[in-house]
Design a protein that fits this description.
alpha/beta; TIM Barrel; 8 strands
């Protein structure tokens, strides 16, 4: 499986969001990563349905919606209706994870589960076969621009081993501190979807930064 790039609009210029979405449309990026934060599960608030709806009007690539919120089951259909192609919920936020995953699938979205840096991926052993994607957080969720956590490489290897036994086609996404310096190593460790925010939107040539991650030029 060739790796995919999902630029994160959390790092975009919110005053020029349409411009930045159109940049992703024209780039080598594959998905558009949308971080939803509620100020409770994580210590930050990002945006909700009106913004996702607005993004969808201009997006020509799949919306990869990452719910960093408590009790995400309340809003799964709303995000599907707003245009989500993938919905990621956090292991730590879902006491009935299997039911949540099945509902995401019933809605017709890719079902994904994220794990925070302190959460062992082996806790996904009983559900990994039911998932379309696992998201490994390589920073503590809530803010962009954080320092990459080195233990992520081990966790990517662990989930790749688990997937090889139970779900070989699993998307393995990594989010946080991804840039040209570590992208190749992340893919080598097992990632096949790279979320990139600051490393794309702070670049002088944003489309070039996405192409560099896609082609693993650093």
């Amino acid at each position: 499986m060739n790796h995919l790039i999902a630029p994160s609009i959390l790092a975009a210029d919110f005053a020029n969001l349409q411009r930045d979405i159109e940049m992703i449309n024209e780039s080598d990026g594959d998905w558009i990563h949308v971080d939803i934060m509620d100020g409770m599960f994580v210590p930050n608030i990002s945006f909700g349905f009106p913004v996702v709806n607005a993004v969808k009007k201009h997006a020509r690539k799949d919306l990869d919606v990452h719910l960093m919120i408590v009790d995400p089951d309340r809003y799964l259909k709303n995000f599907k209706d707003a245009g989500a192609a993938s919905i990621t919920v956090h292991y730590e936020a879902c006491p009935n994870l299997h039911r949540t995953v099945q509902y995401i699938k019933e809605l017709g979205c890719r079902a994904s589960v994220a794990v925070n840096p302190h959460t062992p991926v082996l806790l996904l052993d009983d559900i990994v076969a039911d998932l379309d994607m696992v998201l490994i957080m390589s920073v503590n969720p809530g803010f962009g621009g954080q320092k990459f956590i080195q233990n992520t490489y081990k966790k990517l290897g662990d989930i790749r081993t688990l997937a090889s036994e139970k779900n070989p086609g699993l998307y393995i996404e990594v989010d946080g501190g991804v840039d040209a310096a570590n992208a190749a190593k992340l893919v080598e460790a097992g990632a096949n979807v790279l979320v990139a925010g600051n490393s794309v939107f702070s670049a002088a040539d944003q489309k070039g930064a996405i192409t560099g991650l896609k082609r693993l030029r650093g």
